[in-house]
Design goal:
Largest sheet: 4 strands, mixed
Strand order of the largest sheet: 1-2-3-4
Oligomer: single chain
Number of strands: 6
Length: 106
């Protein structure tokens, strides 16, 4: 079937391939959306991309834009923000997020 009652399918955790999007588009009704999201347990979703039944994509499918109340940056081991393209730890700040973990001291 075409999963007629499905309104949103959210995926994340692994890279989304264009072939996966095409399979989604053939199996669902035109009113359903596909959400490609990046998240962490501590912050929930912090980047997302919504794909409609008619969206054309190619590999790699984008993970999307940041969620509005989140600041995302990549830092080195000293906590210094790195420029685009550098490897480091992803950090996420936002109004509703705590500053670290309970009983975790640096």
């Amino acid at each position: 079937g075409h999963f007629d009652s499905l309104r949103l399918l959210s995926v994340g955790g692994e890279p989304l391939k264009a072939a996966d999007v095409q399979a989604f588009q053939t199996k669902v009704h035109p009113g359903c959306w596909l959400q490609n999201a990046m998240a962490a347990t501590e912050t929930r979703t912090y980047a997302q991309c919504f794909i409609s039944h008619n969206t054309l994509v190619s590999d790699p499918v984008p993970v999307g834009s940041r969620v509005l109340d989140r600041k995302i940056r990549v830092e080195n081991e000293l906590g210094v923000e790195l420029p685009d393209g550098e490897l480091g730890a992803i950090t996420v700040d936002g109004f509703w997020l705590a500053n670290g973990y309970v009983n975790h001291h640096q």
